[in-house]
Amino acid sequence: MGIYRYPKPQATEITPKEVWQNRRRFMSAGAMVAGGLAWPFASSVAHASALAALPSTPNPEFMSVEKITERVQATTYNNFYEFGMDKSDPERYAGQMKVSPWSVQVEGEVGKPGTYAIEDLLALEPMQERIYRLRCVEGWSMVIPWIGYPLSALLSKVEPTGNAKYVEFITDMQPEVMPGLKSSVIDWPYREGLRMDEAMHPLTLLTFGMYGEVLPNQNGAPVRIVVPWKYGFKSAKSIVTIRLTEKQPTSSWMQSAPREYGFYSNVNPTVPHPRWSQATERRIGEGGLFAPRRKTLMFNGYEEQVASMYSGMDLAKFY
Length: 319
Ligand SMILES: Nc1nc2c(c(=O)[nH]1)N[C@H]1C(S)=C(S)[C@@H](COP(=O)(O)O)O[C@H]1N2
Ligand SMILES: [Mo]
Fold this sequence. Notes:
Blueprint: H1 17-35, H2 41-44, E1 57-58, H3 71-74, H4 89-93, E2 103-108, E3 114-117, H5 118-123, E4 128-135, E5 140-150, H6 151-157, E6 166-171, E7 191-195, H7 196-200, E8 205-210, E9 213-214, E10 224-226, E11 239-245, H8 252-256, E12 280-283, E13 294-295, H9 303-306
Parallel strand pairs: 1-4, 2-11, 5-12
Antiparallel strand pairs: 2-3, 4-5, 5-8, 6-7, 6-11, 8-9, 8-10, 12-13
Pfam families: Oxidored_molyb (PF00174)
EC number: 1.8.5.-
Domain Oxidoreductase molybdopterin-binding: 98-253
């Protein structure tokens, strides 16, 4: 269990009591089934934790020698535009998001469409811990210990038809608690997509937790996707629908700024965003204002694993 390695949460990042009590009630059933461990696990953990522990087994293939970003940074510096444009808005407002009950509808080009309760998704496959870099298109990055299992496990279960070429992710809308939905920067709900081979790639993680615990709301509770070789915006949070399609879906960002955001959005230091370079990045939590920026790596450092999916493609054209 990786959970002892993480720094103790600061008092300031502890969620109001009513919120975590709700979360615990909801998580206890699912986490027990998923982890096969006794529930009071969280109370035996060395640090006072506001969220339910999510037991997992570290996957040695996806560990990292890089320094893990402090949990306080990863949970207070976020993009989740449903809650506002500022980096601090998700942490401030997402506590109000209702994450229980939750279900995910799997539909479209599948032999077995259906609605999965979050408890069933949690129990579908053993939970793995994987340390992934997340690189935002804005030019910053973090290193996060995620908990989940490959999306391919779920996709195989629903039996994609021969027409299934793409997967679309649609995320939740809760207008009462999401002030960002009033903004027309994005055509809501937030939608993202992957090509079928990308969705089935072993790196693509259906993600339920981070830092040994269930996902904090601001990081996309109760379930999100993490696609580490693509810019962070491909990693849709708080997913309610997974739709398999024959045609390439139009993501929210492609729709709002087609010149700036394409369908693929692979991390690529050689293809600048029309308004800024993608050659370097700032690692969140590393030094001050004058800390040197890091060189951005091709496919965010996952080139060896994913480059073959794009052989023969002009990555400046398919940005
Ligand atoms: N539903 C939803 N998912 C989203 C976003 C969003 O605004 N709404 N922002 C994306 C962006 S731009 C990034 S960089 C990552 C940030 O994930 P993190 O806050 O967990 O680091 O979430 C992505 N997923
Ligand atoms: Mo981002």
